[in-house]
Amino acid sequence: MPAFVSEAAAVLSREDNIAWQSRDVPPTQVQEYALAKTKDWLDAGGDINCTTVTAMGHTLLIKACIDNHEVLVAELVKRGAKLDIKAKGKSALHYCCLLTHPSCAKPLLDAGARLDIRVDEDDTEFTECDGMTAMEIVEEKLLGSRDPEASRLHALKRMLQDATRRS
Fold first, then answer.
1. pTM of this prediction?
2. What confidence score (pLDDT) does residue 117 get?
3. Which of 3, 83, 97, 128 is the right S-S partner for 137, CB 3.0 to 4.6 Å?
4. Which is the CATH superfamily of the domain at 3-166?
5. For the segment 54-93, what is each residue's pLDDT rounded down to a tens digit?
6. Given phi > 0 = left and psi -120 to 50 = alpha, else beta, which region is 124?
7. Is the pLDDT of residue 2 over 90?
8. Which residues on adjacent β-strands are paired with residue 90?
9. Which residue has the higher pLDDT, 32 or 85?
10. Taken in order 140, 145, 149, 150, is the CA torsion positive or negative?
11. Residue 146: which region, alpha, beta or left (left: phi > 0; alpha: psi -120 to 50)?
12. Helix (H) or strand (E) holding 133
């Protein structure tokens, strides 16, 4: 493993990183590498809200949510990434709910991600959620889910309810 990867990963200590609050294992080497490369790119002047990260128009934040990379999500939120940009009609919070990633949703909700945004109608994947909010997605997915996914969906639902009360 290159030395700069572990040095960059050490910058985010467990005490000051909100992602560690719900995580019991450290990031993988692949995640550490992605974190270090992303931080280097941003430090060199890269646009944190760039929509050309993937061919589908994902931002760094959306891609990190899709990949369930909660440490990178927390870092991007801390650096001021726009929370409510959509790619293929879905925000980062929508992807967290669709893919059942509560640890990635937490920093988004803590930073004030909007709960009233609806998924755009389109012909891409996840068309069953067209027109839904994040809460509606979670409630719909709960109808047919079983553990361990059901546990993650219940955690997401509690987080969304708490965020609704705060707003």
1. 0.82
2. 96
3. 97
4. Ankyrin repeat-containing domain (1.25.40.20)
5. 888 899 999 999 999 999 999 999 999 999 999 989 999 9
6. beta
7. no
8. 87
9. 85
10. positive
11. beta
12. none
Rounded CA separation 39/58 (Å): 17
Domain extents in the chain: 3-166
The residue among 83, 39, 43 whose CA lies nearest residue 65 is 83
Report d(CA 77, CA 79) in Å as an integer. Answer: 5
Enumerate residues 6+ apart whose C-beta is below 8 A from 25: none
- What is the mean pLDDT of the segment spanning 117-132? 81
What CA–CA distance (Å, rounded) separates 29 from 18? 20
Alpha helices in the chain (DSSP H): 3-11, 29-43, 60-66, 70-78, 92-98, 102-110, 134-142, 149-166
Strand partners, 87: 90
pLDDT, greater one: 152 or 2: 152
